[in-house]
């Protein structure tokens, strides 16, 4: 502070000294008049610099800081340095805010920033999709005006944000959201929303899977248990009845064995610790074996035709391909009425190859086709049990094809039959030189 006042006091002292020098030369009147004029000029100069400062403060821009003279020059230099630091700090804050917004926009979850009155300050595009928000019209509005679900209002009013709220999306009721408020700063909040539809579906599938496995095992166990009680209580059963009981128990035991084997197969296919072991698979030879197995399963009830129009082999796991293709063929045999024809075909399809099984059965209604590869999903549960299926065959097919980068296509018409086709990519195809012999 002493340094700040030194220059103006020095200037005023020089003016007073000049007036004192003029006093004996020009008289007291002229000395006082000169002092007054010098003092007025000094005041006008400072008023001019002060006006420049006031004009700049009305629109503070770094490039328009006044230059000034004398003491004001130092003041404006300091002001320029301060404005420069502020501009750099503002630039850094703008960059940080821009990075924050970009990070928020890149997040896979919805993010809404709320102020102390729960008014929207900002949200990312995912939140706009989940809640049906509009960036141009909804900023500044209370979130409760835009999300009118009663459960969300109760969640906001309770002020207990330790647990998320599970709710349906206002824009798409088929989407389930996990919503949680996270307080931060001075009464600010982040509203985080995650799409958990997939997790909910997985949880539903898990519950259905456990229920289905329990049901599938309960039935044969009940039958076996009942027969064992009968054998224990009635020691005088005829040999014919005993043979009948043992036959039924054997059938139910085989059914449970097939179910357990299919479950183990699915577990092995899904395990990351079980990588695919590639080998050369002679598909025409494999299909000839499966054709013979199908004829044995049919017992002459169906004409089964094998059409080998390609000599292509595949790179893959023979045991898995045998299981998948065999499942498709055996399903055709089980669900095709007696006397109707089944056609198994192996053919080239551009650079890819196609395996298909065409039957003349009852067909499948369109709404069932997307769900056929779900575990234990059956179009007709009672008819499936009659055929001896476990309900896991097409699930096994789907997993095997996924491991071989192949895809399953299903075409069906009620009353006309179905065609199950498997298309293997060109990267899996190995061309054989020998001609194909059926």
The CATH level-2 architecture of the largest domain is identified as: 2-Layer Sandwich
Give average pLDDT, whole number: 80
Q: Quote the CATH topology of the largest domain.
A: Heat Shock Protein 90
The ordered string of helix (H) and strand (E) elements is HHHEEHHHEEEHHEHEEHEEHHEEE
Number of helices: 12
Please explain how this structure is put together.
This protein is of the alpha+beta class. It folds into four domains: 2-97, no CATH class; 107-195, PAS domain (Beta-Lactamase), CATH 3.30.450.20; 204-270, Helix Hairpins (Orthogonal Bundle); 279-430, Heat Shock Protein 90, CATH 3.30.565.10. It has helices spanning 2-26, 28-58, 71-106, 125-131, 143-146, 150-158, 197-233, 239-270, 283-298, 318-335, 381-387, 393-403, and strands at 110-114, 120-123, 165-168, 176-184, 188-195, 279-281, 304-308, 313-316, 342-349, 352-358, 407-413, 417-424, 429-430. Strands 2-1-5-4-3 form a five-stranded antiparallel β-sheet, sandwiched between helices. It has a five-stranded mixed β-sheet with strand order 7-9-10-12-11, with helices on one face. Helix 8 (239-270) packs parallel to helix 12. It is elongated. The model has no long low-confidence stretch (mean pLDDT 80).
Quick structural overview:
The protein is of the alpha+beta class and 438 residues long. It has helices spanning 2-26, 28-58, 71-106, 125-131, 143-146, 150-158, 197-233, 239-270, 283-298, 318-335, 381-387, 393-403; strands at residues 110-114, 120-123, 165-168, 176-184, 188-195, 279-281, 304-308, 313-316, 342-349, 352-358, 407-413, 417-424, 429-430. It has twelve helices and 13 strands.
């Amino acid at each position: 502070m002493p340094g700040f006042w030194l220059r103006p006091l020095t200037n005023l002292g020089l003016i007073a000294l000049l007036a004192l020098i003029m006093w004996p030369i020009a008289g007291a009147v002229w000395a006082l008049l000169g002092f007054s004029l010098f003092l007025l000029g000094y005041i006008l100069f400072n008023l001019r610099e002060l006006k420049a400062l006031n004009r700049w403060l009305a629109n503070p821009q770094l490039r328009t800081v006044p230059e000034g003279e004398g003491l004001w020059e130092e003041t404006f230099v300091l002001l320029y340095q301060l404005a420069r630091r502020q501009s750099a700090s503002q630039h850094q804050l703008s960059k940080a805010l821009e990075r924050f917004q970009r990070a928020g926009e890149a997040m896979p979850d919805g993010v809404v920033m709320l102020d102390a009155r729960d008014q929207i300050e900002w949200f990312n595009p995912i939140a706009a999709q989940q809640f049906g928000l509009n960036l141009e019209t909804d900023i500044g509005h209370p979130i409760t005006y835009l999300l009118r679900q009663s459960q969300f209002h109760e969640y906001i009013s309770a002020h207990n944000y330790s647990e998320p709220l599970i709710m349906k999306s206002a824009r798409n009721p088929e989407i389930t959201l996990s919503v949680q408020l996270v307080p931060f700063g001075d009464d600010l909040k982040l509203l985080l929303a995650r799409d958990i539809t997939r997790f909910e579906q997985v949880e539903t599938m898990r519950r259905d899977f456990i229920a289905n496995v329990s049901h599938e095992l309960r039935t044969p166990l009940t039958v076996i248990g009942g027969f064992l009680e009968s054998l224990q209580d009635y020691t005088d059963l005829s040999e014919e009845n005993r043979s009948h009981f043992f036959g039924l128990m054997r059938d139910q035991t085989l059914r449970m064995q097939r179910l357990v084997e299919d479950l183990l197969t699915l577990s092995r296919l899904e395990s990351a610790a079980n990588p695919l072991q590639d080998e050369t698979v002679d598909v025409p030879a494999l299909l000839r074996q499966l054709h013979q197995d199908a004829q044995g399963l049919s017992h002459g009830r169906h004409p089964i035709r094998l059409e080998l129009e390609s000599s292509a082999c595949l790179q893959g796991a023979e045991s898995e391909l045998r299981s998948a293709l065999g499942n498709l063929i055996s399903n055709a045999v089980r669900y095709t009425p007696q006397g109707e024809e089944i056609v198994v075909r192996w053919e080239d399809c551009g650079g890819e190859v196609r395996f298909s099984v065409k039957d003349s059965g009852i067909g499948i209604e369109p709404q069932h086709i997307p769900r056929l590869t779900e575990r234990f999903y059956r179009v007709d549960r009672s008819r499936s049990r009659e055929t001896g299926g476990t309900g896991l065959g097409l699930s096994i097919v789907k997993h095997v094809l996924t491991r071989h980068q192949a895809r399953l296509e299903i075409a069906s018409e009620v009353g006309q039959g179905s065609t199950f086709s498997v298309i293997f990519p060109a990267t899996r195809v190995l061309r054989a030189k020998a001609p194909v012999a059926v």
